[in-house]
Amino acid sequence: MSEPDPASALADGIDLAGLLRRIRRRADLSQRDLAARLQVPKTTVAAVESGTRPMDVHLLVRAATLAGLRLALLDAAGEEVRGMHPDAVRDRGGRRFPAHLDTMLSERRASRWEHRPHLRRPTYTFDRRVPWERRAAAADRPDDHLLPQPGDSPEERAAARLQEVRLRDRQERERRFLARELRSGGVGFECTCPPACDELDDRSGRPVHADACPCSCDLG
């Protein structure tokens, strides 16, 4: 049984010898010239072009650059495929998430931390896919991992939600005041409910106020 061709083992289906010759022709370099520019023996260039040895991808990139060319990945339609974004989200240790997994804001999977209240929730997490789901999910898989955005942390998102609730409450109080549904208050008045009211009231029913609340603004 014959030994596998080392050049084809590295670049199956790619005419590496022809590409290197094309590079030399575009750059107008002899084998000796190219070897000198790449700082490798001339025999290395000759062996790659004869198909008897592979070529390190870093050398191939450097050779292509000499000819004003660059290497690229193409999909089945011939469109160039870029590398994953270098600034995509990372874990708290500064490490990139595994490329084959899908990243998401941690609050989308809040149940993972509900039973561990003493642990600080991370900003980002990921989903694992079982093997039989991978093929089915491939069509809808995002092209890249999330990019960090201002306000992504759980604390910032919780504060933003609270601000939205307070704004809606204020607008509703003003509406009720103009409709004469409240005994007191008016357009432009500021709610003075302490934080304890927000902790008690989950907005699922009638307003709830702490015992020491000086405002009780929506109980009219």
What descriptors fit this protein?
434 Repressor (Amino-terminal Domain), two-stranded antiparallel ribbon, disordered N terminus, 220 residues, mainly alpha, 9 helices, 3 domains
Task: Describe the model.
There is one protein chain. With 220 residues, this protein is mainly alpha-helical. The chain has 3 domains: 6-71, 434 Repressor (Amino-terminal Domain); 85-149, no CATH class; 153-220. It is 39% helix and 5% strand. The chain has helices spanning 6-10, 16-27, 31-38, 42-50, 57-66, 111-114, 131-137, 154-178, 195-200, and strands at residues 73-74, 80-81, 102-105, 124-127. A hairpin with a 5-residue loop joins strand 1 and strand 2. The model is unreliable at 1-10 and 185-189 (pLDDT under 50).
Topology:
Layout: H1 6-10, H2 16-27, H3 31-38, H4 42-50, H5 57-66, E1 73-74, E2 80-81, E3 102-105, H6 111-114, E4 124-127, H7 131-137, H8 154-178, H9 195-200
Antiparallel strand pairs: 1-2, 3-4
Helix pairs in contact: 2-4, 2-5, 3-4
Question: Can you summarize this structure?
Answer:
The chain folds into three domains: 6-71, lambda repressor-like DNA-binding domains (434 Repressor (Amino-terminal Domain), Orthogonal Bundle), CATH 1.10.260; 85-149, no CATH class; 153-220.
